[in-house]
Amino acid sequence: MKKQVSRRDKILQTALRMISEGGFHNSPMSELASRSGVAVGTIYHHFESKDALIRALYAACAEQVSAAVLQGVDEKLSNSKRFETMWLNLHSWYSRHALEFSFIRQFESSPFVSGKGHDPGFFSQPVLDVFREGVKVGKLRKLKAGALSALFAGMVSSTVTMELREGKKLSGKELAELASMGYAAIRR
Amino acid sequence: MKKQVSRRDKILQTALRMISEGGFHNSPMSELASRSGVAVGTIYHHFESKDALIRALYAACAEQVSAAVLQGVDEKLSNSKRFETMWLNLHSWYSRHALEFSFIRQFESSPFVSGKGHDPGFFSQPVLDVFREGVKVGKLRKLKAGALSALFAGMVSSTVTMELREGKKLSGKELAELASMGYAAIRR
Amino acid sequence: MKKQVSRRDKILQTALRMISEGGFHNSPMSELASRSGVAVGTIYHHFESKDALIRALYAACAEQVSAAVLQGVDEKLSNSKRFETMWLNLHSWYSRHALEFSFIRQFESSPFVSGKGHDPGFFSQPVLDVFREGVKVGKLRKLKAGALSALFAGMVSSTVTMELREGKKLSGKELAELASMGYAAIRR
Amino acid sequence: MKKQVSRRDKILQTALRMISEGGFHNSPMSELASRSGVAVGTIYHHFESKDALIRALYAACAEQVSAAVLQGVDEKLSNSKRFETMWLNLHSWYSRHALEFSFIRQFESSPFVSGKGHDPGFFSQPVLDVFREGVKVGKLRKLKAGALSALFAGMVSSTVTMELREGKKLSGKELAELASMGYAAIRR
DNA sequence: GATGAATGAGAATTCATTCAT
DNA sequence: TATGAATGAATTCTCATTCAT
Fold first, then answer.
1. CATH, range A1-47
2. Phi, psi (rounded to 5 degrees) for A167
3. In angstroms, rounded to a whole number, what is the distance separating the alpha carbons of residues A154 and D176?
4. B73 to chain A nearest CA, in Å?
5. In a designed cystine with A99, which of A20, B12, B95, C27 is the match (CB 3.0 to 4.6 A)?
């Protein structure tokens, strides 16, 4: 029982590293297997296909992101503070999780999303609820929670990409400004 | 002479459609050839490899984008007006060029960019110069033009993605606000 | 004890259905296991290998066929009556056992027979004895019982195949004619 | 041009030998390629899939069979003579083409036929027309040409199988008797 | 330049079988 | 006996690239 979880997790973890470094198509199942220390068949025991494995990995990342985003976000905060906190949380998580960040970017701009089936969804319901609530109380633009959050997350993503590109971290003051801007972009 | 250009363009155009719809790896050279009405070998007369073809396509897109972005941008404009105009230009071009937009997104988040060789660069020198000038005169954050423009473009990209996702276009007023926010994000 | 028999039979029964519908190679052990409601390992407790399982299934079918063929066949019957009865018995059994018929046909024309090991044999000794006796008393062609019976059974098989193809059953009179013809084909 | 035909034919010829000896599933494409002296990809250049290759092979065999069956069959012959000739022609061809015979038997009793799509058809229209004409003039049983010919061919097949099993050829006299019986089985 | 048949390394996936529990 | 996770060799098929015409 413990062993299974451990194997499955090991595979996901290896896949994350390989894909974030080389992309989906430089990550053959055979290599994923050997690097994970399991047989090819074992991967197929845990995931129906390579596609399914990638989706599962995305889901796992998305879950972690959502949890991280909500850290310290509660009803006592003002709307601006609430979203600025989320902005900074997301920025922080992306910055500390370069592999996940790279993987998520690749996944979201690949035909995996728009192509087959629907969008697997990025933020969890609790996160989306914060956006919904904002719209409901008239603080945010009247758009679907999915759209608002995508815009919001896109700005964070652009910022992190820029930092990585520049190879230089923005200061806390600069980040606070951008977070404020992020809120401004979605508020009414 | 005319024939060659026409063939090369036809190939690029077909590749754009195929890749934007199916991704790099659902776009085999053989199918690209047949859909373009040429032989496989012909593609290799015009492009050294599939990689080279994709880079050429990106370069062609980037060139068009840069030209579009600079429409109506001149020294007479204030800094805010200048960048807001560029923001709206870019938004407008992306909106009118869904295939190119999809292709560019895929290209930029794939290992093509960070992986092999250098970043092919997105904006042309003239566009980058506008950012450089902004930094020089103390109006923009002290970051490299490439970084600033990436952040700027990322916001537009997020906005368009959001609109596509939502399936609803933002109003001119909303866009103006976001453009203003875009400038705010990079200004000092 | 009862449980074991029941399990073994359930496996054979499921295998019969799967193979007759999809062929040997569309009948993986794992699916056979799940459809039979047992674990893969359990199949290997009852059968040494997939090959052995298939041979066992063939043997089981052959046994049933032989028993069915001899219904109402005794020494009092004339030779013609004897073989015509056998012909009709076989026809009747095949018609009522479509899955077995399909499986037997596949088995017999596959490399299972001529390939590995010996022919598992189709008719039981008692059935073959009837043919041997016919040869002995000079009523049948001087051929081995196996050959004669194969010719005989082949004609029934062809007839059933034809009926299945046509989707229309032959009348009792037509069958009687063909049965008579079957005897004529092997008699001296 | 000449080369292509030759390659395609070589592949079919090798496939015939391999499949007749080892069955569909002991005939991997890689081995088929090497034994044919071509690359794997070349097979796929000529045939869409292994399935398609097998179907093409069957079609090629069926075409040859049909041509052989009609040798010496013309309107001047009586009905009995006509069908007896066809019986003997088919018997002769099967006897001289052991590989094709084995392949055809395997193909026809595999899920290739009843499974996917329709029956690819065995006899050519000209052959079927002979049966149709027989029905039309009231000499043959009122069954579809496909069914009648299947019964007819099935008897020949059974006979050849028996001879192969026995390892002894039937005499010309015996064959003539069986041919006569074959006609008797389908006549009205 | 144009063609497209040929190549073959490489990729995803399958599945009979094993074995520790 | 029963289980089913794990194995990994084997299989089908793909596709970027080459080259003789």
1. 1.10.10.60
2. 75, 20
3. 85
4. 24
5. A20
Q: In 10 A of CB A47, how many CB atoms?
A: 20
- 8 Å CB contact of D23 and C111: yes
What's the confidence (pLDDT) of residue A109? Answer: 87
Contact C144, D129 (CB under 8 A): no
For strand E, the positions having any atom within 7 A of a protein Cβ are 1-20
Amino acid letter for position C49 = S
Confidence at residue D117, expressed as pLDDT on a 0 to 100 scale: 45
A10 CA to E20 C1' distance (Å): 21
Q: Is B150 within 8 Å of A165 when comparing Cβ atoms?
A: yes
D135 touches chain C (CB under 8 A): no
Mean predicted confidence (pLDDT) in B2-12: 80
**Band of residue D115 on the pLDDT scale cut at 50, 70, 90:** very low
| Distance of C1' in F6 from CA in C50, Å | 19
Mean pLDDT in residue range C133-152: 88
Q: Which residues are paired to B187 by β-bridges?
A: B140
**Could you say which residues from 108 to 127 on chain A have a Cβ atom under 8 Å away from some Cβ of chain B?**
108-111, 114-115, 119
Residues 6+ apart with CB under 8 A from A78: none
Tokens of residue B18, six digits: 């195929």
Number of helical (H) and strand (E) elements in chain C, helices listed first: 10, 0
User: B6: how many CB neighbours lie within 10 A of its CB?
Assistant: 10
Q: Which CATH superfamily is A58-186 part of?
A: Tetracycline Repressor, domain 2 (1.10.357.10)
Q: Quick: pLDDT tens for D62-107.
A: 999 999 999 999 989 999 999 999 999 999 999 999 999 999 999 9
CA B178 / C1′ E7 distance in Å: 54
Could you tell me where in chain A the CATH 1.10.10.60 domains are found? 1-47
Any chains having at least 3 CB pairs less than 8 A from chain D are C
Please determine, for residue C57, whether its predicted confidence score (pLDDT) is greater than 70. Answer: yes
CATH 1.10.357.10 residue window(s) in chain B: 60-186
Report the pLDDT averaged over residues A13-31. 95
Over the range C138-151, which residues count as b (16 or more CB within 10 Å of their CB) and which as e? ebbbebbbbbbbbb
* Residue D155 near residue D179, CB atoms below 8 Å: no
Interface test with A, best of B25, B50, B140, B162 (most A CBs within 10 A): B162
Nearest by CB to residue C150, choosing from D141, D150, D158, is D158
CATH of span C60-186 = 1.10.357.10
C67: tokens are 């028993």
SS (H, E, C) chain D: CHHHHHHHHHHHHHHHHHHHHHCHHHCCHHHHHHHHCCCHHHHHHHCCCHHHHHHHHHHHHHHHHHHHHCCCCCCCCCHHHHHHHHHHHHHHHHHHCHHHHHHHHHHHCCHHHHCCCCCCCCCCHHHHHHHHHHHHCCCECCCCHHHHHHHHHHHHHHHHHHHHHHCCCCCHHHHHHHHHHHHHHHEC
Task: Please tell me the distance from the alpha carbon of residue A62 to that of residue B90, in angstroms, as a whole number.
Answer: 29
Identify the pLDDT of residue D41. 96
Yes or no: say if D120 and D154 are a contact pair by the CB < 8 Å rule: no
Ranges in chain A annotated CATH 1.10.357.10: 58-186
Average pLDDT for chain B: 89
Cβ within 8 Å, pair A181-B184: yes
What is the reported pLDDT for B113?
A: 60
What is the per-residue pLDDT across D13-63, written as a single tens digit (0 to 9) for each?
999 999 999 999 999 999 999 999 999 999 999 999 999 999 999 999 999
Q: Which CATH architecture has domain D61-186?
A: Orthogonal Bundle (1.10)
- Residue of chain C whose alpha carbon sits nearest to that of D148: C162
DSSP classification of residue A120: -
How far off is chain B from A34, nearest CA to CA, in Å? 22
**Residue C138 and residue C132 in contact, taking contact as beta carbons nearer than 8 Å:** no
Chains with 3 or more CB pairs closer than 8 angstroms to B? A
